[in-house]
Amino acid sequence: MSTVETISPADRGSAPGNAPALAVLEQTRARTLALVRHLDETALETVHSPIMGPLVWDLAHIAAYEDLWLCHRHFGLELLRPDLAALYDAFETPRPARQDADAGLLNSEQAYAYLAAVHARSCRALASAPIADPTLFELVVRHELQHTETMLQTMNLAGLLAAGEPPALTVGGGDAARVGGEQKSDGRARAYARAHAIKNRAPARAWVEIPAGAFVMGASPQGFAYDNERPRHTVELPAFEIASHPLTNATWRAFCEQGGYEDRQWWSDAGWAWVQRHASGRSRHDQPDVVRDDPQACLVHISWFEAEALAAANGGRLPTEAEWEKAAHADLGDERGLGALRDVGLVWEWTDTIFSGYPHFNAHPYREYSEVFFDRGYRVLRGNSWATDVRVASSTFRNWDLPERQQIFAGVRLARDC
Q: Domain 190-417 is of which CATH architecture?
């Protein structure tokens, strides 16, 4: 099976001004293919988790999305495979249906061919006409990058990560504030998480006071942002404190050793019900961490219920997403301009906020990206993880998931009232 796409010299030409866009498209696809290059057909086509689709579905979905939004909606081409449009629509084919062997899904060889064919026609379109709508182009690129993180979640659950993944996620191993476009390297946290090599680590939990007052929340009207990041609006907050670093394995282990999963006082009603159903014995057996040998590594693969309980047991609470964003941009006189938060970018960070639209929200370009998830119990996560590409990560990006989910690379940072 070939994972290399061959693009002709004619396809690599571009309309005036499109060369950077073509380079981005090719770099994004190269990243996707490199991610799964070490996997065979069985690994790609197997359903590794009941809450995740097979990896091959993600590959074909990436192709179908690009064909729909870039080739069809933007450049006006007919769909390459109209018969696959519904099959690889995330709402028409939810995750349980992606596991149906009789659904007509593409195998890995067919999915690679579909990816290559769509990519080639995208390159030809970019060679023939300028980009009239940069938002749609950016949507396609970021969609693929977000799916590579989803694929990494699946690969982690299945024990299929390549050597060296994930990188060390040591708290206090350098300033990992990857907000406001300050990320470096390939979008991973390696440059900021040099475990076992950093002397004089910062304390794992120093409290930083954020003064009361208003701030402007949300993405700027300029440039690309998802619809749920807009419009910008003013939020008034009382003073609060937030931890400079996310919680570590050491804190979670202490919680377990002190009987945290058996102690009702730390859990909400919904959280305690979740413990009874899913986490009995968690303190005695499975550590929810991909970095199992470092007590100073970021705690990861924590559900929202666990994050809430850990916060309560450690004298705090979860920050709201407004508090998180204000702290990320707080001017504390730091000459580096990093705000109050350190080690952002190692793990996603759960907040106390239910995912909903900002005041005067406007769905764009389609309701199914954000609006259909509003006010349905999904909790907001902020900050991005080691698996998040630099192009996606920003201080206004809003991730969301159900409170019981643990597959996401998520941890917790504490807050408390002043």
A: Alpha-Beta Complex (3.90)
